[in-house]
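Hey, can you fold this?
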Amino acid sequence: MHDSSELHAAARAAVNVGRYLEGAALARRGLDRWPDPLTRVRLLGTLAYAEAELGNFDLAESLGDEALALPRLDAESRGTAHGQRALVRLLRGRRADALADFSAAIRLLSANHEDLGRNLLNRGLLYLEAGQAAKALADFEHAVAESETAGLRDQAAKAWHNAGYAAFLLGDYVRALRDMDAVADYFAGQSPAARAVGLQDRAEVLASAGLSDDAIADLRRAVALFRAARAKRAETASLVVLARMLLTENPREGLRIARRASARFAAMGANADRLRADAVAALCAHAADMRRVPDAMALGDQLRHRGLNDEAGQVMLAHCTRLLAQGRLDEAREVRLPRFLRANPNAWVAAVRAERLAALGHRSRALASVRTSLDALHTAQARIGSLELQTSMSGDLRRLGMLGLRLALERRDPALVLEWSERARAASSRVIPVGPPEDPEQAADLAELRTLVAFQTDPVRRQELRRRIRERTWRTGGSHATQPVSSLPEVQAALMRRNATLLALLAIDDAAVALVVSQESASLHELGPLHQVAPLLDGLVADLDVAAADLPAATTATLRASLHDRLARLDALLLAPVAHLLSGGVVLTPSGLFGHIPWPLLPSLAGVGVTVARSATAWVSAPDVGPPTRTLLVAGPRLGRGEEEIDACAAPWQEVTLLAGPAASVANTLAAFPKADLVHVAAHGHHHPQNPLFSSADLADGPVFGYEVQALGTVPDIVIFSACDLGRRTSSDDPLGLATALLHSGVRTVLASPAAIADAAAARLMPGLHARLATGRPVADALAASVAEFGPGAPPLVCFGAGW
């Protein structure tokens, strides 16, 4: 290879896929061939970029100056030189100079699709660094068009990926994941460094959306890929991002990583990047509650001087939070807080601003601020179609919601506490759902996963399929619509119509508080400290599971006595103090801490129709429907009395479909689901704790997954799972489980158990339940009567949703 143009093409190709040492060597060989002025400019620019990525910033910038100093350059050559020097200046942190160079290049290169696209791409990166995401998105979209016109697939893919990152900064997680995933396979085939860039940016989206475990795993892979490519600067930058993600999971590890990155950047002379690492180290030190933390005010000034306003704002937020926790209100008052941050702009900023207002005595202003910010975040949440992603985002809402709830409780106003009880829990229940689109690839992956799970083969492939199934749903857009929080009069009107009482059990700091709303009044009651409740909740599900096992009679009696004592003590703490206020049916909206309690088995609720709603708003908005008439009964395999159970349950129904044996296949069951008003599945159930939408019930040809039931366009009013664990949920104030998914998809009422169910007990209880349902009794009432009739040892079934 003797031609300098060919050497430049080879050098640029190597640099574009992260092979910087190889690219630099090829560029030097090209310069030794005495190229023409334009080719010389391009070779100098490629060499400068490679040296910058290798951490040699002084050399890189001098090469850019050399290119612009060449005599008799035409417009295209000068534009090329400006663009190349701008990129080096951007990497070094000289943003104002870089912006001027990029803009000059774009003006000079208007007729060159290839170079114009490249400089639009690079200026977009600068806008991203400056937090100007809307301008960045416009540049990236323009760069995609110019690059595709020039036939440059690699450049177009980079612009497309970065458009996704800009969309993320603008709060559009669905578009961000769509754009990034659209080109992920392309980058995966290019080089380790190219794949790493995609993983790092995508990890930031996932972390901001609350999927911390997925984000950290992706970022650790990115660090390893950068290291393999010997991309020292990129590897160090990715370590800073990793440290930031560890802020809540493991801040001490994050602190160690950030300090190491800072030292590396200092050795490179990359002072702006060093300051970024120092900012993350300061955040981790605050999160780890270290006694000695960096001087936040001095660090903030340095960051702002470098134009790193976002990082300065984060340091000020952490500093103010620390001052407030220490009661240093005068100092906290003087801290300069940001108006927004680039990613997820409202949650953290709004929380600290409101906490400062409240601490300084401006509680009404704090509450108004939190209300406005929460509404904006709920609107952003409604842009997402994936229930998993909606619930994972609720972590950002929780701090705001709990602050609002604390302020409301201070006022002792039941109407205000009801509002904030709603805002602090089950945020996704306010999102008006949309049905997922038909997706043959998703259906095929679920079918393959079913076979592998049924035969317990190929765990690596199972993990890959689960990853693909989850990620595909993340790219689904939402309805962009939310349900307004129901007011106290609206709740009371619904309670009167359905003859019920609302009991909201709240966990706030170490206190358990009950809000009781009757048809005519509302009141607040202190229940006591949570540390008395927590030991009773620990091991509750395990006790329920053991009590359902087939054990000798003497052992069973002992276990049931222990379980009865545990439930009685929970009842005494949570329900007995307010039991006299409960009349008619009971609508429970418990905090996530109480999510695994089998409420119908508690003494104060014996014989009482009780339903657990995701929120009072969701319960009020559930439409009234008539009693079920079309019934589907399904018996899965390997269940001792499953067919006997559904045969007995079918007796009181006129229009009934039974599926058992080979007929109880996944396809037959899913096909019959939309045609029924009531569906009863008697099968072995499996709760998937890492992602409850993979929870399943065993049918003739394998498990039917929550994803498949959730995807049905038409759903029954009532679903009954005579199966273990399918009422189990993640413990949070926006819990996710199979019951949640069904309620979100439009099912009004779900009957399921948070623990194991004995086959014999289910077969004994369910026929009486169906006999009552067939007469038109509400599900919650029918369950209460059936449990009372059963007596001691009744299965721990819970009614979720409307209940009536």
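Oh, and this one too while you're at it.
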Amino acid sequence: MPLQLGTTLGVYEVLSAIGAGGMGEVYKARDTKLDRDVALKILPDAFVNDPERLARFQREAKVLASLNHPNIAAIYGLEESGDSPALVLEYVPGPTLQDRIAKGPIPLDEALPIARQIAEALEAAHEQGIIHRDLKPANVKVKDDGTVKVLDFGLAKALGPELSDTEAANSPTMTMTAAATKMGVIMGTAAYMSPEQARGKSLDRRCDIWAFGCVLYEMLTGQPAFDGDDVSLILAEVIKSEPDWGRLADDTPESIRGLLERCLEKDRNERLPHIGEARFQVRKALTTSAVEPTGAATTGASRALPRHQFRWAGAGLVAGILVAIAAGMVVWRVAGFDTSAPAPLRRLTIDLQEGMTLPAGVGTAIAISPDSQTFVYAAQSAEGRRLYRRRMDEFRAVPIPGTEGATMPFFSPDGEWIAFSDASVTEIKRVPLAGGEPFTICERCADGSWGEDGSIVYEWNRSVFRVSENGGSPELLAEPMLDRGVPALIRVSLLPGSKALLFDMSTTDVSIGGVGVMSLESRELIVVSSDGGDPFYSQTGHILFARGTTLFAVPFDVERLQVAGQPTPVLAGVRVENGGSVQAVVSRDGLLFYAPSQGEVGTQLAWVTRDGAVASVIEEGRRFATPRVSPDGERIAVQINAAGGSDIWIHESGTTWRLTDSGVAANPIWAADGAEVAYGSRSAESFTIESAAADGTGGVRTLVASDAPVSPAAWSPDGNLLVFQEDSPNPKLFVIDVRDPASREAYAASESSTYSATLSHSGRWLAYVSDRSGTDEVYVRAFPGPGREYLISRGGGFTPLWGPGDSELSYLSPDFRFLMAARLDSQSLEVLDRRELFPARTFWSLPWGTHHDIHPDGQRFLMLNQSAPDRTAPKVSVVLNWHQELQARVPTGQ
């Protein structure tokens, strides 16, 4: 029902009508409380009169309101006063992009800045798991100052009806009136719909990439990419025809032509996979190939570099760089960064070599020798995973004998040795650069950095240790500083001089934390940044780290151990691995190269049968963690990490929606009746375990509060007893009656670490991992106790999961190569046999945290599939003499 001018809706006074459509009527209004103009979108009657649909929309609106980006028109809230519920939106004055295109084609120098801002808006939303679904020129506004605002983000899904699979397959999925459909389907506009939308198939972010291509094409030509006299003809064009590429002006850059072709690939598997690549190509077209530097480079003394000072996203880049150097494509002064005269900034794009990929997991893939003459990199090929060596004056990489299974390489200060992590046995080893019999430096260690004093520092179980390069007893250097809000020290490296540690002070389960430096002499903690991660040092005097997919730089005085400025973004669109590693590197010679991953690289959520057959649950790669199947097998609770932190999402009936929006939620578990989901959280005061209704209604209740990180592990069938893990700093298990906060008791109390607990379906047995024997093994004990402890694994095991009937326990083998199954006598707990189910290294597996689950039928496992199609970027961007640009953007005063 139309609103009269002057009508008030809550605190909003209606000023004028703006427009109307399938999504409702829109009015300009005045917020009399905050004294600002807003837009009110009055929801359609068919929507308001459907309580179930309204409840679903309220959940979706909660997600959409979390978007915070300068190119996205904000959702302020939902006004429920009276009989006319309305969305309260940011009011954006100015014409729409459709109005501008109506005047004719937009010149390239005007169109590309608009396209770049649209791409940035889409990229920010896609990182939060939100797709627009109805991107078109009418949903884009261009303000007088050139700022672009994308409107109606995600409302096509939020306001659309919940369709069955049959209805979705037969739906034309476009804006229609209620007379044309049973509830006014609002799923897109025909001329901008992707082929999969037109066919009524499930959608992912690639539908937005198609629409982006349509919008860019229309800006440049003044004509729609797909047109027709009626809807059916337009849909036929979308599905079968190509745009008229001859409409593009002759001066359209080839890179933009190529971008349009990739965006408008009808097969979405061939389409541009990430909108960040579009943003990168548009930005590249807006700049010249060479930019004169605006700042002077700094010098740096030649010294052995920490391993994080040179890292790489894929093995094939080495071949591309070396061939380019040999062919005279680039000038690179290997002996040192030449500052005698400003060198021009040069940008290259290099195709990655086929046949080699990033090894599965997280961490460093490449190292460079102290004299900058030799690359060593970890690569996965048909022959397996190992290290490869390539000198600057050679064209062929050769495998290094003795490094089978290696990853995360780093050099000795003299360049004669290469050390690496062997994840199959959680050891750091070293071999001569030419290869040979590996020498084990330490056990139960990973991710090292070789200091100038001959010591190696490494991270293990969130703490930092130091050991001699010749082995021996490790020395504990630093533990989590819970009183300072530092729950973990990971991705550690030595700063130049070996007098201080640089580390990521986040947890492995929650993608928040920050960057810290600790003096090895005074033990003083210096907080470099309160958020971000995976830091590394540049000899320009900067610490670089990632926030989301953006690289930040902050000046840092390495002699005084002082932060000398504010973090400043210096590079957007950097590839970030599922575990948080940023794939960008700066050499001592001023070379920057990075994988322009478009959004954070993730995994697929997939079902895997007992014989290893894989079927995707969610095709789109996301930074998933700790997935949990509901007791009825119909829903999935999963942690998703993104730039804004980590939250719990629910996947059901092909739809994924956010349960929490705190940015600090992790490690979900289901209540036995499926009505609640518990998860770990944190605040400035404490760490907590909270519980929320699984349907998103109602409030949140706190089950556990602690001064140390806590996460739920298992919930008794009656809902009264909760098993949880507390890291203080070593992990321990506790049991609490949720009705009595004072009832907390230690479970299987010992000085050893105990973690990864899981309760059998009957509630009779608790399985967990303990290192009390010196090896991480799977044990079972009666629950809630007391009772004897039964050893289940032999030679090591991680992350146990109970099958139905208390008669089978699956777990990861100690080298993470296989998912094992132990068949048990359900009464005596005798192990009847152990067998390998399927190879597990393709899937995301970590010793801490259970990153897979088992369906209640016991016949399939929910896994994080690392073989997602988007994992390997086809190209790597290279910037020569980037030190000068870095100094110009973030001066250090050197």
